[in-house]
Amino acid sequence: MKVLWITAHPEPRSLNGSLHREGVGYLEEEGHEIRTSDLYAMRFNPVVTPADFSHTEDTRLIVGHAGQEAVREGTLAPDITAEHEKLSWADTLIVQFPLWWYGMPAILKGWFDRVFVGGFAFGVRDAQGRQLRYGEGALAGKRAMVIVSAGAREASLGPRGINGELNDLLFPLQHGTLWYAGIDVLPPLLVHGADRMDAVGYAFHANALRSRLKDLPYADPLPFRHQNGGDYDDDLVLRPGLDPHLTGNAAHYRVES
């Protein structure tokens, strides 16, 4: 595999930092190629500005259009272009972060805002003019796995847990960002009890990480529905005959009969 490991934690001596080094070391031992985007170490700028697109103040900035134009003309900011080169090289992405207020750290959200621009991560059409997204598109053929740490107990991030089910919390990232761009998304790895981790707990999670990395090339992805697979009508609403008892996030997973 060619793996791009994106990590977002401000403290290299943290649990996240240790597991990152553990995982990278394991993949290297297994003969895989690794590149890393350690966003805090890079001091990555998470804020979208006109300078990202070499945009002048003469006209109003329309971010989506400006991104596509800058990709086409080769005028994106160098730090964005560097991340595009890594993404184009990789066949597998690992996105690792601590769960802060039910979401990604701002620096990682900003990475997606700036790097997943139109013309690179989306905005592709087929010969019939259909948008190629949600399972198709510019980054189709790549795989991704999210590694997320949380101070919460494992059960509290389950189907009836007070914090909400983990895949629901990650739906904007896994479905609305990665799958939107065509990337197959593997089930996430939860590192629970992060604030109370002892040596035994660390050994458990390090072993779980190695196991998931070993299976990375072969594991089945989350069964998200394809936009253009016939499940949605022209308004991109799930057809009424498909699992009519399901609503919300659950409706966008294929259910095996």
UniProtKB/TrEMBL annotation:
This protein's UniProt keywords: Oxidoreductase
* Domain Flavodoxin-like fold positions: 1-199
The yes or no answer to whether the keyword Ligase is present is no
State the signal peptide span: none
Which family is annotated? Belongs to the NAD(P)H dehydrogenase (quinone) family.
Give the protein's recorded name.
NAD(P)H dehydrogenase
